[in-house]
Amino acid sequence: MILNYAHPEVIVDTQWVAEHLRDPKVRLIEVDMNATAYESGHIQGAVFWNAFTTILQPNYRFNFDAKALEELLTQSGITNDTTIIVYGSHSAIAACVFWFLKVFGHNDVRVMNGGRKKWITLSRPMTSEIPTITPTTYIVPEPDSSIRALQEQVQAAIAKPETVLVDVRTPQEYTGEWFAMKPPLKDERAGHIPGAVHIFYELAQNEDETFKSAEELYTLYSSKGITPNKEVITYCAIGARSSHTWFVLKYLLGYHNVRNYDGSWEEWSRLDTPVELV
């Protein structure tokens, strides 16, 4: 039984954020699929990132161009020593940015627990003022491939008893009733990777979108055979929601061998790969 988060330092509550709004070593990043919510009001000093135009490419694959990331971080006023706090309207997108920055080796990235919803629920102050950012110099280190799973690695893991594939999409996507987008993307097949265990990513959250306790999380995942002694590969449609489950397993529960398949269903469903329907 796991009673405490393995790495409690990677999540901060709204009080911590409120106390560090003027800390020059801290940069708040609000990330979303469009700027509508941000423009209606955001946390003071927060910089906005549009997930679809910053860390994702037009084909919904992650943009692993180090120069593009250096430019994004430089323009966001971030240095290699900055503490980055990520939040937004969707917990999965915040966790996705966390994972992406960890791939590129940023040392201090944290997620605001409960995100934008929690901040608003507590009636904490917001502003529509866009912050003035002084560009910095950021040097991206060598990427960490150990937290990524590639398609051939996923295929090799099918039916291996020491590895568990975790599909974190909605139940309807898992069974093949739904696609992530309507209409589905070109040539996309329905279903899931054979043998994948299904646990919808939102089950790791409370109603206010904060993370459940370590005990609750361990019970949730271990009941489906997702235990610390196994290699775990998470996936979803484009690698965002699966980043959330990756974050929970690796950082909150302390599982040592967890990777996110960022190609996810967007890639898998278009290749000559096996697909299972329920």
Automatic annotation (TrEMBL):
Keywords: Repeat, Transferase
Gene3D superfamilies assigned to the protein according to its UniProt record, in alphabetical order: Rhodanese-like domain
Pfam families, alphabetized: Rhodanese (PF00581)
Annotated signal peptide: none
Molecular-function GO terms, alphabetical: thiosulfate-cyanide sulfurtransferase activity
InterPro entries the record matches: Rhodanese-like_dom (IPR001763), Rhodanese-like_dom_sf (IPR036873), Thiosulfate_sulfurtransferase (IPR051126), Thiosulphate_STrfase_CS (IPR001307)
Domain of life the protein comes from: Bacteria
Catalytic activity: thiosulfate + hydrogen cyanide = thiocyanate + sulfite + 2 H(+)
Domain Rhodanese: 22-128, 159-277
Cross-referenced SMART domains: RHOD
Name of the molecule in the record: Sulfurtransferase
